[in-house]
Design goal:
Elements (H helix, E strand, L loop, with lengths): L1 H16 E7 L3 H9 L4 E9 L8 H6 L11 E9 L5 H11 L7 E2 L2 E2 L6 E4 L2 H20 L8 E4 L4 E2 L7 H4 L5 E2 L23 E7 L4 H9 L10 E5 L14 E2 L1 E6 L2 E7 L4 H21 L1
Parallel strand pairs: 6-7, 10-11
Antiparallel strand pairs: 1-3, 1-6, 2-3, 2-8, 4-5, 9-12, 10-13, 13-14
Helix pairs in contact: 4-5
């Protein structure tokens, strides 16, 4: 009996450390990939939550994405199961705020519709308190950085529906892809909202936009830029550090490779490129630059 009580006590303690929370921050492919990379996260699963109808599918969620009457649509969400002895709820929720732009309403970047709205669905009162407290702090930081009001809905989780199997680990199954990047660049640890800036060098240069937890960025770095031996200067940076560049491409994913001439974008590519394709793109960049000079 004593051993049984000890076993039950340990089991209850272990269960108490394992918690579940659901986040919606745009397309669930990138959100799932982001959270499953965090130490202390046991699993991250794509699905649907927050709607008023049962058994949503990818098709039904897309069907209702522009409707505001009668039906409350589900969000593309990610259920995160985590161990509080390895990662705190506060750290997890702060990561959620920093992952995306929570001021955009029914969209994230180019993904438009109420299924992409920012949402946090909590499963206990502690998560709710932390969500509301961090929201208040993050709003102040966003305001200082020139952003508008947070539109994130913070509600108790009623039910989570697993997404179709082909959505699970989608970015793992599609190696030649990119990681959606909707982050504002505003960090909790950065109270003054000051970042080191990257300015144009003048002449030709290549800028690679990187992001945390982007496996395509890491793959591009390992396979291409780590042993780059071209004559054009190449820098790998975060989007928020760019200043003084004239860009035509709206950076919504990483890696983004920008070919720059005197601070102005000449050409760009979004997504992973192998080494052969990268050097071919450099050749095209040089030819475009020569043509531009000839026309002047």
């Amino acid at each position: 009996m004593r051993k049984l009580l000890l076993f039950l006590g340990l089991s209850i303690t272990l269960i108490a450390k394992i918690q579940t929370i659901v986040f919606a921050a745009g397309c669930f492919w990138g959100v799932e990939k982001h959270f499953e990379h965090l130490d202390g996260v046991k699993s991250a699963k794509s699905g649907y939550a927050g709607g008023s109808y049962e058994n949503p599918t990818y098709e039904s969620v897309l069907q209702h994405r522009h409707e505001n009457k009668d039906v409350v649509n589900h969000t593309e969400s990610v259920k995160v199961v985590y161990d509080t002895s390895k990662i705190s709820t506060e750290s997890l929720i702060k990561s959620f705020w920093e992952l995306h732009n929570p001021t955009q309403g029914d969209r994230q970047g180019n993904d438009k519709g109420n299924n992409y709205r920012s949402s946090l669905y909590y499963t206990n009162d502690e998560q709710k308190k932390i969500a509301l407290a961090t929201k208040e702090v993050y709003q102040r930081l966003l305001t200082q950085a020139g952003y508008g009001s947070i539109t994130t809905e913070i509600k108790p989780l009623k039910k989570f529906y697993d997404a179709e199997s082909y959505h699970q680990n989608y970015l793992e199954k599609n190696p030649f892809g990119y990681c959606p990047n909707h982050a504002t660049g505003v960090k909790f640890s950065n109270q003054k909202i000051a970042v080191d800036t990257i300015q144009p060098l003048g002449g030709k240069e290549i800028i690679v936009i990187d992001a945390e937890h982007c496996r395509f960025c890491a793959k591009f770095k390992k396979n291409v830029t780590d042993h780059y031996n071209g004559t054009i200067p190449l820098r790998t940076v975060y989007q928020e550090t760019l200043k003084g560049f004239k860009l035509e491409t709206k950076i919504e994913g990483t890696p983004t490779i920008l070919f720059i001439e005197n601070g102005k974008e000449v050409k760009s590519f979004v997504g992973y490129m192998d080494e052969k394709s990268f050097y071919k793109a450099i050749g095209t960049f040089k030819n475009l630059a020569k043509r531009a000079k000839a026309m002047m």
